[in-house]
Amino acid sequence: MSNAGICVSRRQLIAGVGAAALCGGGCAMLSVSPRGAFREKERDVPLDEWADIIVAGGGPAGVAAAVSAARAGKKVRLFELQGCLGGVWTAGLLSYIFDFNKSEIGWEIIRRLDALGARRIDSGVTYDLDRNWTYEPEYMKFVCEEMCREAGVRTILQCPVVAAYRDASGRNIETIITESKSGRRAWRAKTFIDCTGDGDLAALAGCGFDYGYPGLDYGQPATMNALVAVDDGDAIAEYVSNDPAMWSRVTLPDGSTKSHHIYASHKLKMLLHEQGLDPSYGDPTLFRFHKNVFCFMANHEYRLRVDDAEAISDATMRSRREIVALASALEKLGGPWKGFRVIGTAEQIGHRDARRIHGRYTVTRNDIESGVTFDDVCTVSRFGIDIHGIDKKMNDDKAAGNSGGVKFRPFQIPLRSCIAKDADNLYMAGRNISGDFYAQASYRVTGSSVAIGEAVGKAAAGVFKPVAIVESPTLESCSDGRNS
Ligand SMILES: Cc1cc2nc3c(=O)[nH]c(=O)nc-3n(C[C@H](O)[C@H](O)[C@H](O)COP(=O)(O)OP(=O)(O)OC[C@H]3O[C@@H](n4cnc5c(N)ncnc54)[C@H](O)[C@@H]3O)c2cc1C
């Protein structure tokens, strides 16, 4: 659905609900039904014009964009909503990475995590060990922060971008506003990069966007990830998706075979069913990233929109309730589950979908199927299309890994899809670039977000060169049997 359906309706406008009052100049945040309008007093706020480039959002894409632009000699300021860098990697406790070994900054992150002993290579993709792996989220925070600090990026944490204003021509973003413990502040730069995942900056600036499944105004389910620990990690290996010793195809009694991930998550689901619990995610998953510590991905929140703070809050707290209930049931089993405890839940629920900001080019399913090539390629998305069931019933039937009927082959992402159509000095990087629902269901994974961020940071700094394409030995048709 396009933002025409998300913006304030004509009737609401006539009823006196002005778009500017509601969304700071763009129709960005309108899913909560307004119960009136309050006109804030005009006031002066402190203005800072130090930066050449402002990056909004410090997730995988934002860190890569900020670091590559700063390394190219630009003065870069990075604003992040949470109290750490890393986005879904860290505040979202993702712990599992896909399609990663394809960009300079990606390789640097691999090397830095390895130096800290904070990465496990157990993807099951035997020819390409650095492609999918698990990591320890606290070390990822440190790596992201160190890379930004060393590159000279000035980072401000807990400082969301809340408004954007254009110059007199109407074509450029001139000033953005942040809100933090320092109050409201104004910032200017020549170039802006929206790496908020959700496309907040572009939407606040009034850029057009699409959102959600074709024809619907909500996207893929969101998930609250958790960290869990158990007394003996080896004892539960057959329930763990990525245990290297176990990675193989499993033959079932009926003679069919399944990937170990599907087998392990099915076993876990059946065990939870026996305890009278039905996890909201159809493929509850344990990813091991340290001896006795795992990422626990067992929850799905359906029909959740990225712009509905009240619904997100309810979903966040509901998810934590579910995670604690599931973990407590496993702990009560004792035996191999002895000491199974939640040791952390994500600060933010993870949104798979995003506003897909209109760019100078939109990557579509047709591009994926036709194998079109571009002269301004940022990266190649090699992770299969991964659509999660849109409601509990569909999720129980096929939880994830649905390609929507698209015949997948690795596809190129052009820089043009990362340049806003409706603002001349705005780039996007990460899951909010310009693509259709199907393309986004592939390139959203973090390997692509980093590669796109790196390319966009260079473009914003004026040093972009199209990447040389190196194909993997095997072109896989889907997501290696795992879900993102
Ligand atoms: C549950 C789940 C499971 C997934 N599984 C995998 C997987 O196994 N492997 C994989 O590689 N990928 C996976 N993905 C996809 C991947 O994690 C994301 O799509 C990826 O993080 C996108 O990176 P990003 O930088 O675009 O966005 P994000 O990681 O969302 O980062 C955006 C950053 O912007 C900040 N921000 C937001 N709004 C503002 C604002 N207004 N002002 C300032 N800052 C703001 C956020 O706090 C965040 O730090 C998964 C995603 C989810 C949700």
Structure summarized in a few sentences:
The chain has 12 helices and 22 strands. The protein is of the alpha/beta class.
Overall description:
This protein is α/β, with parallel strands linked by helices and 484 residues long. The protein has three domains: 7-42, no CATH class; 53-215 and 359-367 and 414-460, 3-Layer(bba) Sandwich (FAD/NAD(P)-binding domain), CATH 3.50.50.60; 225-345, no CATH class. It has twelve helices and 22 strands. It has helices at 10-14, 19-23, 60-71, 104-115, 137-151, 200-204, 260-274, 309-333, 365-370, 392-397, 437-443, 446-461; strands at 47-48, 53-56, 76-79, 96-97, 119-120, 133-135, 154-156, 161-166, 173-180, 183-188, 191-194, 209-210, 226-229, 249-251, 257-259, 285-290, 293-297, 341-345, 356-357, 377-381, 411-414, 426-428. A five-stranded parallel sheet has the order 7-3-2-11-22. Helix 3 (60-71) packs parallel to helix 5 and helix 3 runs parallel beside helix 12. Bound molecules: flavin-adenine dinucleotide. The site of flavin-adenine dinucleotide has 38 residues, from helix 3, strand 4 and helix 12.
Task: State the secondary-structure class.
Answer: alpha/beta
Strand order in the largest sheet: 7-3-2-11-22
**Number of helical segments?**
12
CATH architecture type of the largest domain: 3-Layer(bba) Sandwich
Question: Roughly what is the average pLDDT, rounded to an integer?
Answer: 88
How many structural domains does the protein architecture include? 3
Strand residue content: 15-25%
The first-level CATH class of the largest domain is given as: Alpha Beta
Ligand identities: flavin-adenine dinucleotide
* Biggest sheet layout: 5 strands, parallel
Distance between the termini: 23 Å
